[in-house]
Amino acid sequence: MAAVGFIGLGNMGGPMAANLVRAGHSVRGFDLADAALTALATAGGSKATSVADAADGAEIVVTMLPAGRHVREVLTGADGVFARAAPGALLIDCSTIDVSTARDMAGQAEARGFVMLDAPVSGGVSGAAAGTLTFMVGGTEAAFGRAQPVLSAMGKTVVLAGDAGSGQAAKVCNNLILGISMLAVSEAFALADKLGLSAQALFDISKASSGQCWALTSYCPVPGPVPASPANRDYQAGFATALMLKDLTLATEAATASAAAGVLGEHARAAYARLAELGMGDKDFSVAARALLQGQLGR
Ligand code: NAD
Asked: Ligand 1 mean position to 95 CA, how many Å?
């Protein structure tokens, strides 16, 4: 069992750290919010007083922070992880951040004698609590092997995607598919409504036809066909529009930076930005269907 420093004990990091404690690891965690520290102590971990205090003496340091700038600050700050962790420590960043920052952090970590993985997750807050997250990992096979006991205590599926930054690349590419396909399914339901075709009929036909996809059959964005989908509980997230907007912004910025060709990514990003402007940032991202049906989104 490892001595783990855990930095960023929010909606995701809190339950992830609790699962590490449950698996027998010794977890010393830090967050800017006192309530998050108290929750870790209640779960059996110990409270650190700073990033440096969490990193001191840790064999493994996990970060679960909002965005790339927070990760950069926590790792490279004057009293940050690079300055304080023990030589050879394994650093695992589970935050969703831009690929270029992930690659830069991995390079700096290696130059300082650390081993680093980017390991963003899919599965949301419920997956974090249940320990069923999917980890998409970028880094070396040796580091991946070393991280297994920790990642498998927090997730069910752990995949090595490639070298440094590949975990973040997988995350943004997957969510580009998801963000666009949810809008496509939502637009089809809005059109069906205008054409006098019932939502249930479209669902029953498309789930067995070439329009079949996860956004339709597992997460149907209109109430009725899939009882467990957020559409049946006033679009309570789930996966919030604001988080989808964050991920599509990362995807479109990566596409611009790498000169990747694209047709729909920017349109999808703009649509979720509009939903957020309309006050739906906290709603599940499938609220796009209701906004289209009610004429709040699109023409
Ligand atoms: P959150 O805002 O709930 O948690 C982030 C935590 O980081 C906060 O508690 C904050 O106080 C802490 N923090 C910020 N700066 C810090 C610093 N300098 N030192 C210590 N703590 C600091 O966010 P979250 O929902 O837990 O998401 C974390 C990451 O996981 C994000 O990158 C997000 O995109 C990604 N993610 C979230 C979900 C989800 O459903 N919430 C799903 C997949 C991936």
From this structure: 7
